[in-house]
Amino acid sequence: YFTKGNNQFYEYLSRLLVRLQKNKQIGILVAEGSRQQRNKTLALLQRHNFVTYAASTAEDARNQLAQHKDIRLLITTNDLPDASGMELVDEMRVRYSKEELCIIGLSDRDHRKQSANFIKSGANDYLTRPFYLEEFFCRVMQNIEYIENIEALHRAANSDYLTGLFNRRYFFQKTENHAQQSNEPACIALMDIDYFKNINDTYGHDAGDMVLKTIANLIIGHFAAYIPARMGGEEFCVYLPQITIEQAKDLIEQFRMQVESLSIPFAGNQLSCTISIGLTDQFNGSVTDMLSRADALLYQAKEAGRNQLVC
Ligand code: GH3
Ligand code: MG
Ligand code: MG
Ligand code: MG
């Protein structure tokens, strides 16, 4: 089995190593009243590289969860001194959805009904003691994978496939809330690549894609503190809360110059482009309204000769 020619084994090993590496990023909180049992559970998890946290009371569990944002799984028994396991699960479900925090209830053999009660309270899964080690790990992994799959779905639904930026739908979801809840100043910049069709027509669609990806990376770096998105085609938008229009102007003007000086190598050619921008701070609580204002200003920037900012 260990011979070099056995590719399956090497594949298996490398998958295992990748998994163990991933586990390092996942925090698991073990809430158990009995110190001896708690330490046993913790030791099992540490064997698989998980970052573990321990709580001996419900109060303790609450604090650990508030403090450590990497906790994605809670394993709890029904022997906490200050709350029943079900009460703790009930309480956690008010704060965290099943996708945010997985909960596995651990019950004793002589309290079989507890399994059902845990699930009814909102636990994702349960286990009865004594359990087979393999079953314990299967349940833990299954729940972790559930969380990871949901996260991957969210990422895919919220981002643009080509550039990795937020997509239009998520941009509205994220910014409309902010706009409605706060009375702070905010700016919106709408940017559009100039004569982008020429790049496609001259160098091909892949070259166009390369330019889009390069600009997107530049946006991610330059506007890291704000909310940038790809609105469609060769149009990008940045929502800038808590900033005056003068500050926004400087920031965007810097960005425009960065784009102007770009030289993107592609298939033996050096690609370059410019952008036009419409910027507004006319904040009336609606992102949609701000965007149409920014769009009108962007149109003016195009009319005035492109490669410029109008606000
Ligand atoms: P203007 O300066 O007026 O903005 O001219 P423009 O050529 O940039 O604008 P136009 O709207 O005429 O063309 C935009 C082009 O962007 C047309 C479309 O084929 C191309 N495009 C949209 N999405 C993508 C994409 O994902 N990849 C590539 N390569 N091209 C895209
Ligand atoms: Mg156009
Ligand atoms: Mg364009
Ligand atoms: Mg356009």
UniProtKB/TrEMBL annotation:
The reply to whether Membrane figures as a keyword in the UniProt entry is: no
Q: Where is the Response regulatory domain?
A: 27-144
Name the domain of life this protein comes from.
Bacteria
EC number, UniProt record: 2.7.7.65
* GGDEF domain segment(s): 184-311
Q: Which GO terms describe its biological process?
A: cell adhesion involved in single-species biofilm formation; negative regulation of bacterial-type flagellum-dependent cell motility; phosphorelay signal transduction system
Q: Per the record, what are the reactions this protein catalyses?
A: 2 GTP = 3',3'-c-di-GMP + 2 diphosphate
Query: What cellular component terms from Gene Ontology apply here?
Result: plasma membrane
Kindly list the GO molecular function terms attached to this UniProt entry. Answer: diguanylate cyclase activity
The Swiss-Prot or TrEMBL record lists the needed cofactor(s) as: Mg(2+)
List UniProt keywords, sorted A-Z: Phosphoprotein
Name listed for the protein in its UniProt record: diguanylate cyclase
Q: Which organism is it from?
A: Neptunicella marina
Q: Which residues of the full protein are shown?
A: 101 to 411 of 412
